[in-house]
Amino acid sequence: MSTTSALPQPPQGGNEQTYTYVTYDGLETDWLGDARCLRSKLMNSSSDDSNDEANCNQGGRYSTGALVWVLLSKKKPKDVQNCNSGFHDTALHKKRRNKKNKASADTESEEHKTSKQSGDEQDNDHGHENNQTALYNRSKKEFFLRARVISDDEAVTDETSEQERSKRRVLVRYSKGATYRVRAYNLLSVLEPSVHKDALPPLVVVTPETHIYRRIAKVHTTPEDSFMEIGCDYGITVDKIQTSIEEAGDVPKEWPRETCGNEVAVDEKKEDDSIIPRVTCIGVDRSLESIDIANDRYPKCKFLLVNVLVSEEMTTLRTTCESCLQGEAPTVVCVDINGN
Fold it and tell me: Which pTM was predicted?
């Protein structure tokens, strides 16, 4: 990560916090839904934060109430494709990634044959290889639904290996109330707004390729967020985020009780939303052709012809967000710098 002045930062003299730059794989680590753990992992923080990490990671457990994505196991894709929601995510660049992975595996196999290490060194390298393999396998899996962690209390011992520990089952609740015990390696922590706001500075996540860019945007944009993409082109990413918000489920931190008071409150909220309709996802681009195509293809989203490098057009964009975007300003902004 880096916070050096060589990287873009907010204008001096303002109230904005300094941006913290992280690579995409930093958010794929097992920070277990606890922002203190993520802060310690990403920010090389002080000894106080290191103590926080030790406390929150004690036993390697997910935090109760943590928002997670449940990933599909290898045995489930056919079932999910036939489910009522039809929700699934097609992995992009699959052939190219598989080819790269095969070449990498062949190289590692040759190096393993020729290398001679001590017993301790072999154990350390094997553990690192398992972690890298697990991260790669997780990045290839398709998304299922969002869920909240209810408990992570399946018995493990101090002698249990990291690989075996990742196979424990964690009890989660889905948006419609169903609960299920999911393997820990099929969970991916989500950086939801309340956690980010309370415990972390503004993050800029840097990704090398389009499919990773879209994956990170999908994982960490929740129904509480409002989303904007700069350089949206034909609106593919914006539509993916809109679909994810609608279909993957909004799981409340506290499960509502079935009382008349709650039902009335929900109805009132719906009435308010109907008075001032707002969109959750906006895309902007300086190409008129791209914006026309995006608006035609994805009517649930809003696409605007804007050059963000022109201050007058940025003023217009701010006004538009205030009038029609949920929350009046985006909480997640993605910038596509034209390809991989």
Answer: 0.72
